Amino acid sequence: MPEIRVTPLGAGQDVGRSCILVSIAGKNVMLDCGMHMGFSDDRRFPDFSYITRSGRLTDFLDCVIISHFHLDHCGALPYFSEMVGYDGPIYMTQPTQAICPILLEDYRKIAVDKKVVEITKHIHDNRALRYVELLPLSGTVQEPQSTSNAFTPPLTHWLLSPCILIPSACETPGTSPLMLVDDELEIKAYYAGHVLGAAMFQIKVGSESVVYTGDYNMTPDRHLGAAWIDKCRPNLLITESTYATTIRDSKRCRERDFLKKVHETVERGGKVLIPVFALGRAQELCILLETFWERMDLKAPIYFSTGLTEKANHYYKLFIPWTNQKIRKTFVQRNMFEFKHVKAFDRAFADSPGPMVVFATPGMLHAGQSLQIFRKWAGNEKNMVIMPGYCVQGTVGHKILSGQRKLEMEGRQVLEVKMQVEYMSFSAHADAKGIMQLVGQAEPENVLLVHGEAKKMEFLKQKIEQEFRVSCYMPANGETVTLPTSPSIPVGISLGLLKRELAQGLLPDSKKPRLLHGTLIMKDSNFRLVSSEQALKELGLAEHQLRFTCRVHLHDTRKEQETAVRVYSHLKSVLKDHCVQHLPDGSVTVESILIQAAAHSEDPGTKVLLVSWTYQDEELGSYLTSLLKKGLPQAS
Amino acid sequence: MKLYCLSGHPTLPCNVLKFKSTTIMLDCGLDMTSTLNFLPLPLVQSPRLSNLPGWSLKDGNAFLDKELKECSGHVFVDSVPEFCLPETELIDLSTVDVILISNYHCMMALPYITEHTGFTGTVYATEPSVQIGRLLMEELVNFIERVPKAQSASLWKNKDIQRLLPSPLKDAVEVSTWRRCYTMQEVNSALSKIQLVGYSQKIELFGAVQVTPLSSGYALGSSNWIIQSHYEKVSYVSGSSLLTTHPQPMDQASLKNSDVLILTGLTQIPTANPDSMVGEFCSNLSLTVRNGGNVLVPCYPSGVIYDLLECLYQYIDSAGLSSIPFYFISPVANSSLEFSQIFAEWLCHNKQTKVYLPEPPFPHAELIQTNKLKHYPSIHGDFSNDFRQPCVVFTGHPSLRFGDVVHFMELWGKSSLNTVIFTEPDFTYLEALAPYQPLAMKCIYCPIDTRLNFIQVSKLLKEVQPLHVVCPEQYTQPPPAQSHRIDLMIDCQPPAMSYRRAEVLALPFKRRYEKIEIMPELADSLVPMEIKPGVSLATVSAVLHTKDNKHILQPPPRPAQPTGGKKRKRASDDIPDCKVLKPLLSGSIPVEQFVQTLEKSTQHPPVPFLLEQHGFSDIKVEDTAKGHIVLLQEAETLIQIEEDSTHIICDNDEMLRMIRILRIPLSSKLRCLCLK
């Protein structure tokens, strides 16, 4: 029995290090290759040894597909290819390919900068970062020159070479380009709307298919459109379930909240610090503030850490086709990513008096510019820091979010945090409603949940099973789900046979379905269904005639010829739609069935009707015999 | 399968393919060479043009002189320019299901087709084709609408008059179908019918046909199309290039194994090498400028201009031209330059890698940044303030009949210091220049046409090996001006089928098979028999379901269990439909085995409605000349078995039982055992 097997190596009942193995019709595909931001030990990476303990990974996997540039979806790629040694094809979209090396590089820099105390302690011994430090040894990666400029040409350039681009999965419904991995395996990308270049994938072999959503967002935002999928009816839909139980307040509310807090702080002369990563949320928040500033005619300056703004935004300008329709339509007149109010930040500005808003990297306040500014501003209660995303344990960001207000800094200094600390989730995931909507659109036969918490998944699983009457699975990491499939077999039917059949009318009668008879010729892998005549002819076989002849005894004293006439007129009246003929030799035919009347050898008052038909006319033949057996109507 | 040829222009094709149950239009190019018969539309009142003498017939009849003007021995129609549309009468265009666009040049007739023929289908095109196509249409509409001209000439089109006119007016074809330009509203409506596609995307048409665009290497987003069902494949090749310019390279491999390859859009200047033309372009440009003259480059707002700008970017400094201003004037100049930078995915590898840095893929961004290249929507406004001479101006339209180029022709035509360089191959430059004669300005002809030449085509055909090639008739003979050059035509075996405007071709193509899906339950029940090494047979009796042109075979329903005598009787009272096809039997019956089966027919499972199950105990077998006779005395049944036939004779009372008993051993034997 053919089957589809799915094993999450990461993201099984968990968020982080997304990595899902799928075996479909003999093909093995790895979906995402992420790292876990919440761990600093072995658990940081998926356990690739699960795939194969002895053989080369490349021999085992047909391809790896990366859904988007977030590190929990692509962060283990360097480890996977450099350390584990995978060198097969890796598929991702162009924006993902362009941006993920930068995030990896960003991450690596934080790790190699020894002066950054707080996390280094945790990570010093862990395999991942040892590896990250090892990277330069491979000869293809150089040390970063300085921490301020994150945009030295992508050092993780090796990553680019083995990747295969998946063509644009535009927001426009209907556009879902297709890639052929080999003769049998097809990948189709759909717009996912989660971050720039995020895609959902359909993996298809013959008539079997699996859809993997990666992370997606069913509501459009400031710069991206909403995810969409067609009614592709996959055998299995693997969906994220970050917000399995929540129906979120609208994004507008969160945006309003954010703008209100920024506005209030600026109005009272305070400074707002927004620690961000260079790409992703930062651009969305910039658009948000930019339009707000313009509408409210605000004068307070908005800054973006040096080195980042221009080039980061440049990616967005070059990948306009991946943004939402509004931006695409107006970009010639006004490129949304050319900000009027957002200016480049200079170190000295941090000490200037008066209100301002500063976007600074990195996002978790664990190093670099954002931490420097934070230290300067933390003491003033008029100021505010807004954390727009998740913070890893051990970072300053995580500490202040968990309520800590006295921070021990290097040199035994204690930093007292008086400024306001706000957390605001801008992550763009589908909520419960959105997930249900996507399941409804794709109409899968089975659903499998990943990228969420077990408890919440349980709830969503029930909901999906109730509403869509499909099986829903939520395997833990390392647990395998096996789905039996029953693929249909495509064969070629000879056009003659098909047309002859179709000519009889398309509507099958549910009471008495008509049967199509043919012969399937199987030659190597070539399957053809042809009419039996053609099959016999092609293979040089003779037909075998199977004929039935039935004796029906009739009480009739008249002559045989007259009996025949009576039979003829009787049949003629009953079988109006059939060709009934009285032949000169005295026999009667109904279509190809022959009826002859003969005298009974012993009883002159009885006539014997010989009804003769071939196997092909069996139904009509049996019908006629039982009809004739009932006798002939009395001649009037 | 038929091909309706609606356009005779080999590089601006418009064909309709009827394939299976679908009607597919391949491109809808607009032949704009008709505008060459018209007087230019000047942006600024031109005394020279308005004072041209009228032209009338020799018989002194003067009624034509309002419509026709004479300039240096050529006669022009003084009217709003008109375009030659594809044939609209050959086939009912409202029956067209889809239109496939191969590149932005080949979609210019789209509004005429989608807006005025009752067309209700879908248009498929790539995003760059749509965006740049929109720009080309926008520019065209803008050029024509901003110079309103009251007069619309029609008298000269009268057949009796037309044949009295001098060439080329006399020879103009289909003049009665010539139409004025569409409006922006029609453009928007037409473009709204487009569905975007990406390379190698498979698009299902009614479940019957699949169409796929492939990169053709000619322009941003340009595509060739594969139109295929499971057993037939038609390739449509239109405007392809093997040269390395800015677009993604051509996908040749996917064209392999075509039954028919429709070949259009080859180079219009097969004798000119694009590389040397670019070289000539650069040297003529710098020569003129160095001598203090101006250079005019009539061009489209997208396409080759990107490559020319890139060339100049590398050339400017070394040629000492860095102080010379370059102007690009078009209502869509800005959009065109901006759009070119965001289609990274559609560009060649070199340009694609730039976005990873991130840098704009085309260097014209830098030319603009450094103020070397300036772009303006028209000569009015800012341009007039910034205008410095000597300079280089890129502007449209390449026909020289409308657009800002008309102004520069009038302005610079009188000085021999200036040069006009023709790079677009769509119009014959001498004809384009005719209404400006006499001209002092230098004219250089450097047509850059990167489309396939005949050497490349024959290599391509050898590579992809289509069974049949179909092409415009122009490609099956040498160009009329170079009739000795037999290398300038398509050479393939079997010879290409040619078409001309308004012709209908029956494509040499016999469909024999169609895909059908056998459902897994049915597949499991099939019993294949190997009858020759490697060849197996299985008899299939199944129910055919057809939906959306997809065919599925499902297992026959199980025979209804006898639930109640009455119901069954009624069913057998129905007169059976004799048109139903029945399986054929083949093979022969091994008598001994057959008799054994009859003897123990009680054990034979499962005979559904057999009430009394017992075997036959009194079987006699007689040998005859041709086979055997099996006698079942108790049942008064006689079975004649021969090599190719079996005849069962029995009494009526026994018949039904006999059939029921015999049906299974007999037919299963015949079908399976005896197929050996």
From TrEMBL, chain A:
Residues 16-270 form the Metallo-beta-lactamase domain. Keywords: Cytoplasm, Hydrolase, Metal-binding, Nucleus, Zinc. Pfam families: Beta-Casp, IntS11_C, Lactamase_B, Lactamase_B_6, RMMBL. Its cofactor is Zn(2+). CDD domains: INTS11-like_MBL-fold. Residues 282-400 form the Beta-Casp domain. Its main location: cytoplasm. One of its GO terms (cellular component) is cytoplasm. SUPFAM superfamilies: Metallo-hydrolase/oxidoreductase. It is found in: Cytoplasm; Nucleus. Gene3D superfamilies: 3.40.50.10890, Ribonuclease Z/Hydroxyacylglutathione hydrolase-like (3.60.15.10). The keyword DNA repair does not apply. It comes from the Eukaryota. One of its GO terms (molecular function) is metal ion binding. GO terms for biological process: snRNA processing. The keyword Cytoplasm applies. InterPro entries: Beta_Casp (IPR022712), INTS11-like_MBL-fold (IPR041897), IntS11_C (IPR048662), MBL (IPR050698), Metallo-B-lactamas (IPR001279), RibonucZ/Hydroxyglut_hydro (IPR036866), RMMBL (IPR011108). Belongs to the metallo-beta-lactamase superfamily. RNA-metabolizing metallo-beta-lactamase-like family. INTS11 subfamily. Component of the Integrator complex, composed of core subunits INTS1, INTS2, INTS3, INTS4, INTS5, INTS6, INTS7, INTS8, INTS9/RC74, INTS10, INTS11/CPSF3L, INTS12, INTS13, INTS14 and INTS15. The core complex associates with protein phosphatase 2A subunits PPP2CA and PPP2R1A, to form the Integrator-PP2A (INTAC) complex. INTS11 is part of the RNA endonuclease subcomplex, composed of INTS4, INTS9, INTS11 and inositol hexakisphosphate (InsP6). Interacts with WDR73; interaction is required for the assembly of the RNA endonuclease subcomplex in the cytoplasm. This is Integrator complex subunit 11. The gene is INTS11.
Automatic annotation (TrEMBL), chain B:
The keyword rRNA-binding does not apply. Residues 548-573 are annotated as: Disordered. The keyword Protein biosynthesis does not apply. It comes from the Eukaryota. Gene3D superfamilies: 3.40.50.10890, Ribonuclease Z/Hydroxyacylglutathione hydrolase-like (3.60.15.10). It comes from Tursiops truncatus (Atlantic bottle-nosed dolphin). It holds the Pfam family Lactamase_B_6. Component of the Integrator complex, composed of core subunits INTS1, INTS2, INTS3, INTS4, INTS5, INTS6, INTS7, INTS8, INTS9/RC74, INTS10, INTS11/CPSF3L, INTS12, INTS13, INTS14 and INTS15. The core complex associates with protein phosphatase 2A subunits PPP2CA and PPP2R1A, to form the Integrator-PP2A (INTAC) complex. INTS9 is part of the RNA endonuclease subcomplex, composed of INTS4, INTS9, INTS11 and inositol hexakisphosphate (InsP6). Interacts with WDR73; interaction is required for the assembly of the RNA endonuclease subcomplex in the cytoplasm. Keywords: Cytoplasm, Nucleus. GO terms for cellular component: cytosol; INTAC complex; integrator complex. Component of the integrator complex, a multiprotein complex that terminates RNA polymerase II (Pol II) transcription in the promoter-proximal region of genes. InterPro entries: Beta_Casp, Integrator_9su, IntS9-like_C, Metallo-B-lactamas, RibonucZ/Hydroxyglut_hydro. Residues 305-433 form the Beta-Casp domain. GO terms for biological process: negative regulation of transmembrane receptor protein serine/threonine kinase signaling pathway; regulation of cellular response to growth factor stimulus; RNA polymerase II transcription initiation surveillance; snRNA 3'-end processing. It is found in: Cytoplasm; Nucleus. This is Integrator complex subunit 9. CDD domains: Int9-like_MBL-fold. Belongs to the metallo-beta-lactamase superfamily. RNA-metabolizing metallo-beta-lactamase-like family. INTS9 subfamily.
